[in-house]
Design brief:
Chain B: One of its GO terms (molecular function) is metal ion binding. The structure holds two protein chains of two kinds. By secondary structure, chain A is an alpha+beta fold. Chain A is 22% helix and 16% strand. Chain A has three helices and six strands; from the N terminus they run ααββββββα. The longest helix of chain A is centred in the N-terminal third of the chain and has 14 residues, at 6-19. Chain B is mainly α. Chain B has helices at residues 12-28, 30-44, 59-77, 153-160, 177-182, 190-197, 211-229, 259-262; strands spanning 2-4, 269-271. Chain B has a two-stranded parallel sheet. In chain B, helix 3 (59-77) packs across helix 7. Classes of the chains: A alpha+beta, B mainly alpha.
């Protein structure tokens, strides 16, 4: 399975975001369109009016691994109108995409780590799926510790 | 009628039959289909979107149906096999017989977490990690490392005392029995056990560890216990709830079974 390009990742993520009744997907798209499309390390954090603040992007070395993360809508506002994950029409019989339901992209050594935001603003990842973290950065660091040097692999689902 | 027993009460023959049937499902490829299904739902279930297998009212009936399907698969190998349950309020030590080499095998070794012995050890050659989230191909555990203590009986009883099945917004922020047993709120029962076991059990591909079934069988038993304690409390919600499986909605991936169909486990099995 070939690794998705970043653009594909962002496309899927933005579509998932738009179709999900998050606190303020429209506001996210609006802030994204006002931001430079290149780079993801220098933008301000997002603010969802009725919900939780979108965490800051991050990019660091942690225990020898390159971890980075950024809001999933960034750089792909043109995809904001796509039908998304949350609707009843979406068929669960189709395999879930690697970023289905995501609104923040996290990568470890350029491999995607599936993450999800909980209703209370905490985060989980596919590696630690039964344990909540306050930020995607904390989740990425926990995943590095859990991986013990192993590489993430593309998710295989039913 | 199938009888599901406490794993601590299984005979040596019952343990062997269970393990052999699980290994045969693995060899035939059927086992990994269960892992894939679980992983797909755990990724797809979101608090603000469609949610079926987790973080939603149907967490309990969905897993009841999922376990039934797995149990039927085991019984297609050996008809006498039923799912055992692990009462982690009692068998709460890595030295429990659950983790002996004649059953699930033990804790992972320090360093890489690899389970070194038992029927599911990598060295047995019979338990490859085909559906996985990282490159490691061996079963891992780190019992008690991610969280020190398993839930206590008092904590379970506190959750069983809750009279309302579930509540709006029907997700990980809900009050009520379902979310408290799932563990996103309150003393943290189900989620904490996944973390306590460690290894693949902490991931979306948690059925890679056969203890997944014994853990969820106990969660299923606790649902039955709760129903007996609160005969007037029914499954909620009962209709017209977006993204959530109502009482008489069908559940994916089967599409022919509803929470209402799953409420009475005695149609399928009893607990010893």
């Amino acid at each position: 399975m070939s690794r998705p390009t970043r653009r594909q990742v962002l496309h899927v993520s933005a579509a998932a975001l738009a179709g999900t009744a998050l606190a303020a997907p429209v506001a996210f798209a609006g802030t994204a369109s006002a931001r430079p499309t290149a780079g993801h390390g220098h933008s301000e954090g997002h603010q969802a009016p009725a919900g939780h603040e979108m965490p800051e992007p991050f990019d660091e070395m942690y225990q020898g691994r390159h971890i980075e993360g950024w809001p999933a809508d960034e750089g792909a506002p043109e995809h904001g109108h796509h039908a998304g994950h949350g609707g009843r029409a979406h068929s669960r019989s189709a395999p879930a995409g690697p970023h289905d339901g995501m609104d923040f992209v996290v990568r470890i050594d350029n491999d995607d780590l599936h993450v999800m935001r909980n209703a209370d603003g905490t985060w989980i990842s596919l590696v630690n799926h039964y344990e909540t973290f306050t930020t995607p950065r904390a989740l990425a660091r926990a995943a590095v510790r859990e991986l013990q040097g192993a590489d993430l692999v593309p998710v295989v689902t039913g | 009628m199938a009888v599901r027993k406490n794993q601590a009460d299984l005979t040596a023959t019952e343990k062997r039959n269970f393990v052999d049937a699980v290994l045969e499902l693995k060899r035939s490829g059927r086992y990994d289909e269960f892992i894939s299904t679980h992983n797909a739902f755990i990724i797809g279930d979101t608090d603000e979107g469609e949610r079926t297998g987790h973080r939603s009212p149907s967490f309990l009936p969905w897993h009841r149906r999922f376990l039934l399907q797995f149990e039927e698969a085991l019984q297609s190998i050996t008809p006498s096999v039923t799912l055992p349950y692990w009462d982690w309020t009692v068998d709460r030590s890595p030295r429990s017989s659950l983790w002996a080499d004649d059953f699930l095998g033990g804790d992972g070794r320090s360093g890489d977490g690899r389970v070194p012995s038992g029927p599911f050890a990598f060295s047995s050659g019979k338990w490859p990690m085909n559906i996985r989230v990282d490159g490691r191909t061996f079963l891992r555990r780190s019992l008690g490392a991610g969280v020190r203590e398993l839930p206590t009986r008092a904590e379970v009883d506190r959750v069983l005392a809750m009279t309302v099945y579930d509540a709006a917004p029907w997700n990980s922020s809900s009050d009520g029995f379902r979310n408290n047993i799932e563990g996103w709120r309150g003393p943290n029962l189900h989620n904490r056990v996944h973390v306590w076991v460690g290894g693949q059990m902490t991931t979306g591909a948690s059925p890679n560890d056969p203890v997944f079934w014994l853990h969820h069988c106990f969660i299923d038993k606790l649902w039955a216990d709760w129903q007996r304690l609160h005969p007037k409390s029914g499954y909620l919600p009962t209709g017209n709830t977006p993204n959530v499986v109502d009482l008489n909605d069908t559940m994916k991936p089967w599409n022919d079974v509803t929470p209402a169909d799953m409420l009475d486990h005695t149609k399928f099995y009893t607990y010893a």
